[in-house]
Write a structure and sequence with these properties.
With about 240 residues, the protein is of the alpha/beta class. Helix content is about 40%, strand content about 15%. β8, α7 and β9 form a beta-alpha-beta unit.
Length: about 240
């Protein structure tokens, strides 16, 4: 079974086609949105899906739109158990809106921490700050998506009870491989981060997660079935926390 805990279905060239393909193939997908208005636009297409859930997001790189979008976030917060993509981005691309990002992310955590939600977290160049805010607001259920920070912080993230979602791109870089090696099997989830990630010089498809599963199987000397069963178990644990 393929599990994709972070995919932007709405940003593919043919999102309805991808949605149909994933549903037909039994791929479990947490479909991210970058803004709450995108969530509202996408909802009608996701209501009847069995295996795909639409997430409510406020992406840090859209910070200039947060003020107008936050009321939309609030009016949709009870329509889904999945929040994402949210977080902080202090890279060169996002650093100019650092304070606004912190303000928005703090508000998101304040209104979700007492609810049964699973958060998919963006933390590029802001891993320490993201973790501190999650702990401060007593968040219990979070997935660090495409983590690229220091391996020295991984144990603290694990101690807080959080998961990591890894994708095929991570398996092809030295830093990504190092990060994956530090994550215990009972905290690993898989993702595509499509359509932003590439696989074999093309836009990634959720089914390409099979490559990640194969990588874990080889690197940990366990069978593909064992990897798939563990990832399914990890997802079940996370979902059971919000039931």
């Amino acid at each position: 079974m393929i599990i994709d805990t972070h995919c932007h279905i709405d940003l593919y060239d043919k999102p309805e086609l991808l949605l149909t393909e994933c549903e037909k193939e039994g791929i479990i997908v947490f479909a991210m949105t970058n803004l709450p208005s995108h969530f509202e636009m996408g909802q009608p297409f996701f209501r009847k899906t069995k295996n795909i859930r639409l997430s409510l997001g406020l992406h840090p790189l859209y910070a200039e739109k947060h003020k107008s979008e936050y009321p939309i976030f609030l009016r949709n917060i009870d329509k889904t158990s999945y929040i994402g993509e949210v977080g902080l981005d202090f890279s060169k691309e996002g650093i100019s809106t650092k304070e606004l990002q912190i303000s928005t992310f703090t508000k998101v955590l304040e209104v979700t921490s007492d609810k049964k939600k699973i958060l998919s977290i963006h933390s590029r160049r802001a891993e320490k700050e993201v973790l501190e805010l999650l702990i401060k607001h007593n968040v219990k259920n979070a997935i660090f998506h495409w983590y690229s920070g220091s391996t020295s912080l991984i144990n603290k993230i694990l101690d807080a009870g959080f998961f990591f979602s890894i994708n095929p791109s991570m398996t092809t870089s030295t830093n990504g491989q190092s990060i994956i090696s530090k994550i215990p099997m009972n905290r690993i989830l898989t993702e595509s981060d499509g359509p932003f990630a590439q696989f074999e010089q093309r836009t990634i498809h959720p089914k390409d997660i099979g490559n990640t599963i194969e990588y874990i199987s080889i690197s940990r000397n366990i069978t593909i079935s064992e990897v798939e069963n563990q990832i399914q178990s990890n997802l079940n644990e996370l979902i059971n926390r919000i039931r």
